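Hello again, I could really use a second opinion on something today. I've been puzzling over a protein and I'd love to understand its fold better. I'm sending you its amino acid sequence along with the C-alpha cells. It would help a lot if you went through both lines with me. I've dropped the whole record in just underneath, so have a look.
***
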Amino acid sequence: MKDNTKFVGLDVSKEKISVAIADQGREKARYYGTIPNTPEAIRKLVKNLGEPENLLVCYEAGPTGYPLYRFFLSLGIECDVIAPSLIPRKSGDRVKTDKRDAVRLAQLFRAGELTSIYVPTPEDEALRDLVRAREDAKEDELRAKHRLTKFPKKCKIKVFSKNNGTRVRSIHVYIFRNLYEET
C-alpha cells in the first residue's frame, strides 16, 4: 500500500494563510493557494486535502500565537510549530514572499530538516503573561522611584536622609509637606 501522507507548509499572517503541499516522495512541493485565516476556511482546506490522519501540518512561530496549532489538534491533525531562526536558509536568498515561505516549509518539513518548538498550554501562556506583567510593573516602579529621587535635584532642593533605604520615602514626604505648607 502506498503511503499518501501530505506535508502541508503554512505561512500564517493575521488575515490570510498561504498553503503549500509536499506529497510523500521526491516530487516538488506545490503551491496550493491563499485562504482567509478563519476556522471555516481552514476546515474547508482540510476537507479538500484529504483524511486528517494523512496530513502533517507545520507553520512558523510568530505573532499569531498558538490558536491555529490547537485548532488543528482539535481536528485530529498533527501540527508542528517551527522555530523561524532554525529554518535552513541559502546564503544570498533574500527574497521572502508568502508563497516561497510556504513551499519551502513544506519541502523542509517533508525532509525532516525543521526544528519544532514546545507549544505552551493555555495555563502556561497565562502564567507567562502574568510574569511579564509583573516584570513590567516592577520596571515602572523603578522608573518612578528614579524620577522621584531626581526631582529635588531638578528643583535645586537639598534632601538628606539617615540611610538609603528610606531615602525615596523621605524625599516624597519632604516634597509633599513643603508643597502642602506653601498652599
Remarks:
- The longest strand covers residues 16-23.
